[in-house]
## 1
Amino acid sequence: MRTENGKLATAAFACASRQFDVLISLRFTLRAAFGSLSRFARLSFQFSVFSPLILLLLITFPHLQAASINEANSLTITQPFSGIESLRVFAKGSSQPLFGTFRPPVFVPAIPFVRGQIYEVELKLANGSESKFEVTFDQAAHVVPTVRLSPTSIAIPANTLKLYLDFSKPMEEGVFLKHITLQRQNTGEEVAGAFRETELWSPDGKRLTIMFHPGRQKTGVNLNLDEGPVLIAGEGYDLVVSGQWRSTAGIALGRESAFHLKPIAADHEQPDPARWQIHPPKAGTLAPIVVITNELFDPQIFARALQVPQTPGKAEAKVIDLQRVEWRFTPEQPWKPGEHRITIDPELEDLAGNNLRKPFEVDLTVAPPQPRSNVLKVQIQP
Amino acid sequence: MTSESRLPYDLGTAMKTMFLAALAVTTLAAAPVAVSPSLIESPQTGGLEFKTLSSISFGPNGLLLVAEPGTASVVAIQTGDVGPDVKVLEKPVADIGSVIAGGLGAKKEDITIKDLAANPASGRIYLAVQRRPDNAVLIVTVDAAGKVAPFDTANLPWARITLPGGTASKVTNITDVAFDGTRVFATGTCNEEFASRIFTIPVPIKHGSTANVFSAETYHVAHRKWETKAPIQSFIPYSDKGETFVIGAFACTPVAKFKVDDLQSGAQVKGVSMVELGSGNRPLDLFSYTDKSGKDWLVVHTQRFKQNAFGPSKMWGARISMDYLDTPQTNENAARRDEKQHEGPQGIEIVDSLFGAVQADKLDNTRAIILKDTEGTLSLEVAALP
């Protein structure tokens, strides 16, 4: 952090310091050269040289490091004011002082100072005088956030429950419904009431779970009957993200993003790993096991949901076309020949909320659904 | 969906337990459990900082429960704010949004009031606030004179309890927290899963412990045919005739109940819809109270997200007779409010004092505390309950 005149003060100090050195050297030279001058002449010369520097320091000194805000979220009064009776700090332009505590010379706000914000400090001194000055907490580096939709496919089931927005930076919360809309592609009309209003962020603040309103997506629920589902198979939609959405550093996305969706038929089936393709590597290699699904999943969730027990390695997943996700597991040690197993989290949900144990909507009038196997066997051969 | 208020507010999680201290006496058929003045075991002191906040609510004796989704935990704080007198807000605090925003060093439009809780032991009001864009959070208090101050936890005993997640996921959202006299309930979700988990925390609340998973899934049934998982939006524990229920608002149906007495840990919980307020409404807060005649009511504070509002604001509330708890007409046959009338069917009525409220909590059996939005300006007020 620095004061408003900090740069100038620093520069002035440096400049003055160099000038002092120069002048001291010059003084000795001149002393030798002008040793014969009268005392009065010598004093006059020195005054005329040094007084501008002294004047510069007197002008800037009151503003030099009067206070500073450090990374530990405290404002310290660094100038030696005598007898501070009280201190108030305001965000510039506000008439309400910050909540916080002042134990001279340190003020700690109730919540952290905001980068880039100018603060006005008011001091009341024991002698009845007041001092006011400004302090700025330096802006962070200007990094523009980006956003993408996951999964990256337009062909989502019409009864999709969840999609995900992945941001490159943590984003401000509490305003997601102001910044996302679902629009019909043919008319541009907004689909009202499309989303569940509960805000669901990942702990790192970079992933937002967007949930289509479940009351509309569920069969037979009153909202579904009164309002209809959010998505109709075969129709085109745009999920629009406004460019005004800011990162936690206060930097906006800058431009609007529109993600096209063209829903396909509703999916009421449990995921079926038996229908997934498995591409085993050769024994003795570090080549990955590859699994390709026959339906869409969110890749981040899918990557975590499949594991190769007791085999250190790295798993990753990506959407490879409109309807398939590819999962790859690369071991840290070469594969041994024989049977290997991939376990699947039975709670893994597809986009419509069906998991391996049962479909999202269970028909109670028919026999209960059978859970799918959550183990894939892989034969690795030389 | 659009918002009428220029001042953003949290729309999803507030639930109040003002009534619960009295309910604790009637909750169980067995002798009521005496609530110790110290409800926290192995309390910590100092060093409490919140990075995230969702719900706040009060238990007895000034016990404040705070849901902290970022750490998947509930924090219990013995506030010591216990009177001896209950001092109610003397007059409305106009434009409280500006006062709070200034105190946090933010613009008014960059503040969200995530939840409101009125301490029945003192009348003091607590607000959970979030600032944008950095998402910093703070709890502030408002006294009877309307003075706003940060909630200082420096010397208060507290305990943190974690909420366990699933096999490959963890709790990332806590939708509600409430005390029923003998235990703390909390509802949470993992982003990867659709249903809510219900957790219980026994009293005394022990720091560092992990909550019990009371139920891993909550369900709703439509037309006796389609059973689906259903996240709980907000809830209150409630006792009636010696039985304990949770009355809740599910994401897809407004007012539902389920019995907790007979449930074992890990069991499925199926919500039964009792009343439909009509499509296009989203419940925000629930609380119960007893009117002067001794009749019990459930108050549902609601937001309407369709255009045809039937009052001066899309933020509104209704009271529902607790007689509906016993109704045989449930789910698709549940009673539907007559949207063209102030009252109807019998036992379902609009509460006029809740129009415009973006947050609400019960203070006592005659009053609620509301945060009212008038064209983007928030005021904190006392609202009369009918």
## 2
Amino acid sequence: MTRFFERISARQERPLSAVPRWVLVLLAVALATQLGWQSHRRSAAPGASDLPPAPTAAALRLAAFGETAAFARLAMVWLQAFDSRADNAIPYEALDYARLTAWLRTILALDPRSGYPLFAAARVYAENADTEKARRMLDFVFEEFARDPNARWPALAHAALLAKHRLNDLPLARRYAAALQRQTTEANIPSWARQMEIFILEDMNELAAAKVVLGGLLATGRIRDPEERRFLEGRLKEIQRRQEKPIATPNR
Amino acid sequence: MNHATATVARYVLVEARRSALPWLAAAGLFGVLAFAGFLSQVAITEAASLQASASAALLRACAVFLIATHVVSSVVREANDKGLELALALPISRPAWYLGKLLGFACAGALIAALFAGPLLAWAKPADLAAWWLALAVETALVAAAALFFASALGQTVSAIAATAGLYLLARSVTAIQAIAGSPLAGDSVRAQVSHWAVEMLALLLPRLDSVTRGDWLLYGAPPAAELAPALAGLGIYVALLAAAGLFDFSRRNL
């Protein structure tokens, strides 16, 4: 390596005047044109309609060339860019949730131990203002929870809160809570999660409940990733802002 | 184009014809078509589409790999054999020599593109295939320009091939990287902003290879000329930039 750089740096060069003037002009013009051309053709984030149908898990596994863990996470990062432009009035409003769910299911099948697909499903896509889409995503979380309850309970716990506070569907929230209570067996799962049904029935607002959940997740050491912690704290602030916003009264 | 440039280009083509390049291209073509044929046997639907798209994607990769390795090995061998000094002792200017090399390699790339496009006529419409061939010819010219620049500047086979491959892969993926970096879910921290702008700057310095020579052109039709022409013009600008950078470096080198 050192020899390589020595060879490069030791290369004697002729003075700049040895370069023909037209070559210098060509270099400057080509560079300026390249910069101008590419800045004019800047590509925006992909829109909702750009999301292609999901491939099969086998096809994705073939494309991963054996690196399924890395590929699954890269696929998630790619997937979350769709319809998420900053100028969207409502992010993910136009996204086809049937396709999105198929993608999440395929990526999860590629690496079943990854928490990313269910985290995104519960924390990002299920928070859609469109209740039909939110319900579809909650159903997906519930379905996938059953395959590995001890690892996937945080997504279902959040789904139960969303069902109660966003969808105002207490029976659905209780169904999720009951499943969480019944199917989780590991000792390190916090008590509020094991008693999720009581927690759901408590007269607690969304912010207080979300704080308890986040506190519980931090206390059990489940959130080690600083980015995940930052994201969840950001969501808490968002709930707080929403609750502090005065409700507009109609003009009489 | 002056006479010396044309002469150098002609000798580059003669060298390519006498090397293993035609045989490797033929073997690559045969292998890809055989693999595509196998895939069509196991597919339960869209067998022809599968054959066309898989062949197009693999032949594109094959053409790029062949031209890059051929250019690098040719330039490095010539430098090691002192053929470069011998050529420049003749009444030929450095820019004429460099541009002649580039022109010859670009023509070799166009010929490989033509060889690879021919069999695809079995599955694609001639107009769509013509657009695919033209885009592949421009793409191989760009790869040849990059390989010539790196081989001439670095003087080592492995480092030149690695640099060319890195540039090519980055150019194929920069749009996806930009989309990922621009997602609001990435947050608005200083680190996220810095990485976002770094990606934006990088994108300005790269060609957009993901928008050309796409296999889906053969299935669903090539883009209209109004869309294709700017994409190819972008690649043309980049070829000119690489040629200018190579000429600058080559003119300053003390042999």
